[in-house]
Amino acid sequence: MALLQYDKVYVFAPNKFATGGIELAHQLVDYLRNKNREAYIVYADIRDGKIVTNDLQVTEQYKKYNIVVAPEVEDVSSNVVVLPEAYLMVVPRYKNAQVCVWWMSVDNAIMWNDNFNDTFRFEKGIINKLGLFKRLGGNCIKGTPLWNVYCKYIKHEYVEPKKSFVNRFSLAKLKKEDYRLFHFYQATYIQQFLYEHHFDRVIKLTDYINPEIINNVDTTKKKENIILYNPSKGLKYTENLMATMSGYKFIALKGFNREQLNNLFDTAKLYIDFGPFPGKDRLPREAAIHKCCIVTGRFGASGYFEDVPIYGKYKFDMTHANYSEIKKCIDDIFANYNERVDDFKYLRESIMREQENFYREIDNIFI
Predict the structure, then answer these.
(1) 226 - beta bridge partners?
(2) CA torsion, points 190, 196, 202, 204, in degrees to nearest 10?
(3) 3-class DSSP state of 252
(4) In 113, 167, 263, 280, which residue has its Cα 20 to 30 A from 174's Cα atom?
């Protein structure tokens, strides 16, 4: 017997955008509909959660899935509403339907709901916490030694927002609603976050890499001493590493189409990622499928073997980074690639089982 009994399932997602998390929402609806369940995508504004009613077309990238878009949600006890964590502000709107929060990441829940108390608690380190006060108009600390440290180390990355904290929702308010919620988590890191905040009814619902990616690997291409990285995540650490490795070939994964991206993965020996890992990020897994070795930090989900199952010698504490040690690791990968790539065999095998595991988790919850 499945966990949930229902007539209809509504899964929220932004429209006109294509990311791993948005595709995951469509994959859930696709699977349920293929199992003859009445399931719908609900396109909603990411800023306020209001349903988009003037465009019921499936986002172009997801027309390959079995999707129907719903213009509204019937808030009755026989229906289920699934809200990705960026839509926490929507939880209070549905009083009768069974509401499930699908935590695909932690950071998005904090960032999109833009609550100062939650953000301050979540930010790691005094420097990052200081940066939050500037958004509050914190001129009272301007000129102090701590403020000077902030300006020196992170001001160059800071972008003044149009609005300060708008407080769309909060974890404290969510806790008051918890008696009627289910929580789905995509990564062990997220599971631990939910337990630390004493949320109840926490259930695993992960994701998988699209088979089109898995089946589009060219093993005939010669591997080269190329280091791939995501310029939108952990860039300051990557730039510090690049400064100590002049003469090495780094390529930022930006502005490439899928065919070009596959070609880079097939050619490069290494993918590095020192980003926050708010969940099980997809880009490192895609790189691993193409037999890239992987080097990460220990932030978020990358600190958990269950989420990023690679040996500890390929994970580095970037808060106290020793870039010479990272360089030594990379040199070893380049010099001994044929042996080192086998260190990531378990990761690759885990990725190959993801779709099967995802479907089994859906069955346990919905089928």
Answers:
(1) 249
(2) 30
(3) strand
(4) 280
Report d(CA 82, CA 87) in Å as an integer.
Answer: 10
pLDDT tens track, the chain, 367 positions: 899 999 999 999 999 999 999 999 999 999 999 999 999 999 999 999 999 999 999 999 999 999 999 999 999 999 999 999 999 999 999 999 999 999 999 988 898 888 888 988 888 777 677 777 666 654 444 555 544 555 555 444 444 444 568 889 999 999 999 999 999 999 999 999 999 999 999 999 999 998 888 899 999 999 999 999 999 999 999 999 999 999 999 999 999 999 999 999 999 999 999 999 999 999 999 999 999 999 999 999 999 999 999 999 999 999 999 999 999 999 999 999 999 999 999 999 999 999 999 999 999 999 9
Q: With contact defined as beta carbons under 8 Å apart, do 281 and 163 qualify?
A: no
Name residue 365's beta-bridge partners.
Answer: none
Neighbours of 173 (CB within 10 A): 15
- Other beta carbons within 10 Å of 66: 13
**Which tokens in the block code for residue 355?**
């779709």
Find how far residue 324's CA is from the centre of its chain.
29
- Which two tokens mark 115? 């609550």
Contact partners, residue 283, CB within 8 Å, separation at least 6: 230, 253, 271, 273
Identify the three-state secondary structure at position 172: helix
CA atoms within 13 A on the CB side of 184: 26
Please name which of 333, 347, 314 lies closest in space to residue 270, comparing C-alpha atoms: 333
Pairing of strands 181-185, 98-103: parallel
**Length of the chain measured in residues:** 367
Question: What tokens appear for 160 in the block?
Answer: 């003044």
Give the span between the Cα atoms of 189 and 30, in whole angstroms.
26
Distance in Å from the first CA to the final CA of the chain: 8
Nearest to 19, CA basis, from 61, 49, 56: 61
